[in-house]
Design a protein that fits this description.
Layout (H helix, E strand, L loop, with lengths): L7 H22 L6 H14 L3 E5 L2 H10 L8 E4 L6 H8 L3 E4 L11 H7 L4 E5 L10 H10 L3 E5 L7 E4 L2 E4 L6 E5 L13 E5 L2 H10 L21 H11 L2 H19 L5 E2 L7 E2 L5 E5 L2 H10 L29 H9 E4 L7 H15 L1
Parallel strand pairs: 2-3, 2-4, 4-5, 5-8
Antiparallel strand pairs: 1-9, 6-7, 6-11, 8-9, 10-12, 12-13
Length: 371
């Protein structure tokens, strides 16, 4: 049988009644913009992260953009980030008025390398945007003191990592809770996905939370009165209602993803040609993606496609090599660890509803290609 990379229909069947009841309640209320479920979702996500405030917005991209706009970046201000991530990370930096400064990644976790970050800091650096890629957190215990020494803000791109945790000093810390602002995406394919676009910012800073609420509503607390120039980025009530329903299952779904990843690890770890995902021992991974390194990656990808097994390459072209960032001057070879990853990574199905038969098909297909 076909094995999709992600099966949202299978997920929906497990929560059909409660989700449809929540959606119908919104329809009956006729409050489609910033209704009560939005406030409730903000509280739920803030509590999950262990912070004081959640501020909902229209997308994960907007969550990053609004957080960066709150820094009041000026021309020439630099923001350090990774070139191995979705475009929105660096795009938001540029759209907020900053200059992206890329640094290389760790070969195991694919996350930003703190040693490279420290080398890249200059007098123009204003912030660091680490990405908790594929569902496990970056090494925040090294980034936080670095940022403090240089008086830099940290904006966490936690779009793929809601619910992920890291043990720091013997205490579990959640993705999004350690920087000045944490940014989440509720794109449908995310571990906590809406029925459309959606995003959330979390912070412990009371004044900043208030300002982010202004910025998401054209910069004004009162209609037709604008303290500064913001954008229109409100989360629809319908999306909040769906997300509230799904949030009750998030921990259970993450556990399912970890269990499936464990099966894959056991089946593929000794296979010549494949390197299973490296998990930092300090991390509790939520496996937004299960991403292997593969010899002859493109051949394996085609082999899986031919057998109707979903797979994807995240990301085939690093951000420093994208045409829109050519003016930054980072050429081929600038970040060798990143560039090697773009040639080798392949993500396999790991969603919680994946059956044992389907998981067996994935393993057999990968092993079959190399044997």
């Amino acid at each position: 049988m076909p094995v999709p990379l992600l099966d949202l229909k299978a997920q929906f069947e497990t929560i059909r009644e409660e989700t449809m009841a929540a959606v119908l309640a919104v329809v009956e209320s006729q409050r489609f913009i910033m209704g009560e479920p939005v406030r409730q979702l903000e509280e739920v996500v803030a509590e999950l992260c262990g912070v004081g405030h959640g501020v909902a917005c229209a997308s994960g991209t907007d969550a990053l953009l609004l957080a960066l706009k709150a820094l009041r970046l000026q021309s020439g201000d630099e923001v350090i980030t990774t070139p191995f991530t979705f475009f929105a990370t660096a795009g938001a930096i540029a759209n907020a008025g900053g200059t992206p400064v890329f640094v290389d990644i760790e070969p195991g976790t694919f996350n930003i390398d703190p040693a490279c970050v420290e080398i890249a800091v200059t007098s123009r650096t204003r912030a660091i945007v680490p990405v908790h890629l594929f569902g496990q957190m970056a090494c925040m215990e090294r980034l936080l003191p670095l940022a403090e020494r240089h008086d830099l803000a940290i904006i966490e791109d936690a779009a793929q990592a809601i619910g992920a945790r890291r043990s720091m000093g013997g205490t579990w810390q959640h993705a999004g809770a350690l920087g000045l602002v944490g940014a989440f995406s509720f794109f449908p394919s995310k571990n906590l996905g809406a029925w459309g676009d959606g995003g959330m910012m979390v912070t412990d800073d009371d004044a900043l939370a208030g300002r982010l609420r202004l910025l998401r509503a054209h910069g004004g607390a009162k209609q037709y009165h604008h303290d500064e120039i913001g954008i229109n980025s409100r989360l629809d009530t319908m999306q909040a209602a769906v997300l509230l329903t799904k949030a009750d299952h998030l921990a259970e779904w993450a556990a399912g993803r970890r269990a499936h990843a464990g099966e894959y690890d056991e089946a593929l770890a000794q296979l010549d040609g494949v390197v299973v995902p490296a998990v930092d021992p300090a991390n509790e991974h939520v496996y937004h993606q299960y991403t292997i390194r593969a010899e002859r990656r493109d051949g394996l990808k085609q082999h899986l496609v031919d057998q109707e097994i979903g797979c994807a390459v995240y990301y085939p072209k690093a951000l420093h090599l994208q045409p829109c960032f050519a003016h930054l001057g980072f050429g081929e070879g600038a970040f060798p660890v990143t560039e090697q990853a773009t040639r080798e990574v392949l993500s396999l199905p790991v969603y919680p509803e994946l059956t044992s038969v389907q998981r067996g098909q994935v393993v057999a297909a990968v092993r079959g290609f190399y044997k």
